[in-house]
Design a protein that fits this description.
The protein is an alpha/beta fold and about 575 residues long. It contains 15 helices and 13 strands. It is about 45% helix and about 10% strand. The two termini are about 20 Å apart.
Length: about 575
Amino acid sequence: MSDYGHDLVFGSFVTPDAGDPDRTVGLAVLTEQVGLDLVTFQDHPYQPAFLDTWTLLSYVAARTDRVHLAANVTNLPLRPPAVLARSVASLDLLSDGRINLGLGAGAFWDAIEAMGGRRLTPGQGVRALEEAIEIIRQVWDTQTRGGVRVDGEFHRVVGAKRGPAPAHAVPIWLGAYKPRMLQLTGRRADGWLPTLGYLQPGDLAKGNAMIDDAAQEAGRSPRDVRRLLNIAGRFSAVGSGPLNGPAEQWVRELTELALGEGVSTFILAGDDPDDLRRFAAEVAPAVRESVSAERDRGAVERPQGMAERDPGTAGRDQSAAEGGRGAAERGRGAAGGDRGAAAGGRGAAAEPVAAPAVRPSRATVTGGAFAVVPTPDDGVRRSDQQVWDESTRPTGPMPDPDRTYTPQEQATGAHLVQIHDGLRAELTQIHDLIDQVAAGEIDAGAARSHINTMTMRQNRWTLGVYCESYCRIVTTHHTIEDQSLFPRLRARDPRLGPVVDRLEQEHHVIHDVLEGVDRALVAYVGSPDGLADLRAAVDLLTDALLSHLSYEERELVEPLARLGIA
């Protein structure tokens, strides 16, 4: 097993369809809206059915705020490297550090030649690619004096001025399959980006070994190279093959790829918006949770030479190889913030679906007394209905007033509060959407800019998609707790048994309330008269969920620290 320890990144691989450009851009915007990290497009300049990839990337960068962008992968034979370097750096500056560079040596040589490119053999393509990487990195290196000079066999630059420097350390990912390309990846690249469908069993392990060996021979750490993977599959009720089955199967298989093959970036190919939503809401968070749990247990093996983190590459892991998390989130808040002049012509219209500000953490995680403050229940209720009797909730053992806690012990409770804060913020957005839809404040253009592009029934459809995605997120969070966290609490301190039992019971009740939201949602999409019923269903969900989250924090944040549960 191999795990390079990178943070997990999840993204989309959208077809740059010139026949329906609004849908293409809408899928990219949806990728950001559902919480994925990365949008990519294939780059085939000779294909008239496709939009030009770099034009499309620029347009999408102006329509989004947080998500990272990349070509998957750039067709180098038709993109002169010195010009490409300036294009990448310029768009990275304009997008506040959200551009990554995927590169390929070329494949469809008849089409490339027809567009004026030079036909190369496989060996020549590898050499040309290495020369291009050198040129690109020299152009970006504005700290070195003198011009860019590479007198190569295929690319020649003799004194071009350096710059501009990109906003962040742009990672270079190579689409590689053959030994020479894999060795080049290990020597010079920041990431390996193959497609799962093109690999045979065992190819990931063989490729990793070649990359690791080449990296070490070049004086680098294997951790310098992020392992990315284009994947495709189908969500279905019953499993019938790899990545063809329910979300739980996807979670299991992607977790195995992460821990066993070192893959840390999963890019879903396909143009189905429902698949993107399920990938973001049901698969990505569960894979992150599963991988984190295994890493905490120390159950994964590091490749040779990686027993400890190489301090010389630690910063690079978090910036150059991050690839999807936003290494240069300059001045943007947790919800994406204000793009200002870089918004690319979106105008000064109010942001109708802007996330509410995330309130500051109540946890000061320092050693000593327990400092993680559970979220109090303010007692406010929106609905006349009650789904349970709050007075019958059991309580756990009282904390020892003389006990002290390390920052590491308190971190898990603080993390639980932060997760809950995210759910609370999303719940506020649902109420805001309902108010805006009811007031007619969201027109088709604004909704298209924030959620997706669909029909003239945009307002009701947009609200429906958001509610549906949120319900899946809540369900996934509860499933993780029921199957992983709660059994460990019950086993380590039996006195917590009644509390854990009650929390599990409330999860089932909340699931039923979510089903009620879904039914009201279906009715509302079919009839504009259903808004009152939908509002009532969401009010009931708000009462139940906020009450439950406060109760859970009150009873669990201290035991999580006392019992050392990560």
